[in-house]
């Protein structure tokens, strides 16, 4: 099985010869107010750039969805170096709150890149050194045992996801069902286990060549649904083995 293409924000020179890299600006910020009664954590000063959904910013990897499989929104979506940040994290920058929904290019020095609706707005933002704050994740009660943060992707039974010899059956021989079937590394979560992910209960009925370590592939009825689901980082709870 294979899942989810990557979005790579890359800003280049536009048709008018304007550079994407504006002057570096150092900004003194007041600490943002607490969100939902929780105090944000100061992370330090980061280099932040900007991007939009155009071909100049995304190059050949241009697509309508973010790395997390959502539709990007100005004033909300931010791309991050996923070795430093997690998908779904909430960040405060220059008094605005953003959610990490996208992935920055591996060849850029900026750890963060803010999404804008137009290339002109992205160019106007330029590149800045700003203070960044992280809001703590919401904690909720779960019946199962917490077993860690997993990278989640989506798949279906088509040739793109499973190859020509998929047989429309899972590794356990059960017919896959949306809302129930999930593929996992059996060395991490045994086949037949029940797990809770994002408030839903799944059964580990399948495996995959690329599903190794803390990685899960959730079954969908159609390829479009699997693509839209994208990639996301979620806590996983083991209910029963």
UniProtKB/TrEMBL annotation:
One of its GO terms (cellular component) is outer membrane. It comes from the Bacteria. InterPro entries: 3D_dom, 3D_YorM, Resuscitation_pf_RpfB, RlpA-like_sf. Keywords: Signal. The keyword Cell cycle does not apply. Residues 180-239 form the 3D domain. One of its GO terms (biological process) is peptidoglycan turnover. One of its GO terms (molecular function) is hydrolase activity, hydrolyzing O-glycosyl compounds. Pfam families: 3D. This is 3D domain-containing protein. The lineage of its organism: Bacteria, Bacillati, Bacillota, Clostridia, Lachnospirales.
